[in-house]
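FAQ

Q: What does a record look like?
A: Structure on top, sequence underneath. For example:
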């Protein structure tokens, strides 16, 4: 075979993302990925020698995209409250595009937590992490003192859980006059921002 084609590689990674998100590392088969990508298995192995290497590429891209939403938290040109509001906008846009991404990451972390820590260290996103940013703002008196760990857990839960539970919520919201893809997600996002405003009073 000749040189690897970037278009084919991207097609494989996109197919692998869909298959891994559905079945996880251990449930996915290389044949499923080849079929989804519309290529034969031999070509798939030419680009990625085994499932683990392909998974590494997909998982790293998933984490990078997830953490990209957090870079605004480290933007010291903005007040901390504005940074958090922008983060909420970013993460909701992210979950709209990749609604199963958080479930995928959580599932694989629960199986191999060490892998997650290694991947995060490799990405070097520590400057944008929420807890150190909140601690610094509290120490400077920019925001009231509260437990930043509990705040982070609550904030991430409020953002991620509606998408994780969307099959349930879509039905419940529809029965109560909401459209999930229109006003419901925006209403949920605004309620998250209200939580931030309440904590910063």
């Amino acid at each position: 075979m000749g040189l690897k084609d970037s278009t084919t590689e991207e097609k494989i990674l996109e197919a692998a993302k869909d298959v891994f998100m559905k079945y996880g590392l251990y449930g996915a088969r290389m044949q499923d990925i080849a079929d989804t990508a519309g290529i034969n298995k031999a070509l798939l192995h030419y680009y990625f020698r085994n499932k683990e290497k392909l998974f590494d590429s997909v998982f790293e891209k998933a984490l990078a995209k997830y953490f990209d939403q957090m870079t605004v938290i480290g933007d010291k040109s903005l007040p901390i409250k504005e940074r958090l509001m922008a983060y909420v906008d970013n993460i909701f846009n992210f979950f709209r595009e990749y609604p199963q991404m958080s479930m995928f990451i959580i599932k694989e972390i629960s199986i191999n937590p060490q892998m997650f820590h290694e991947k995060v260290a490799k990405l070097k996103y520590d400057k944008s992490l929420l807890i150190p940013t909140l601690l610094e703002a509290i120490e400077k008196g920019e925001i009231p003192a509260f437990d930043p760990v509990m705040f982070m857990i609550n904030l991430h839960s409020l953002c991620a859980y509606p998408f994780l539970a969307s099959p349930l919520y879509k039905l419940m919201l529809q029965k109560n006059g909401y459209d999930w893809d229109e006003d419901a997600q925006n209403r949920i996002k605004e309620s998250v921002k209200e939580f931030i405003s309440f904590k910063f009073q």
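Q: Is there anything notable about this one?
A: The chain has two domains: 1-57, 69-199.
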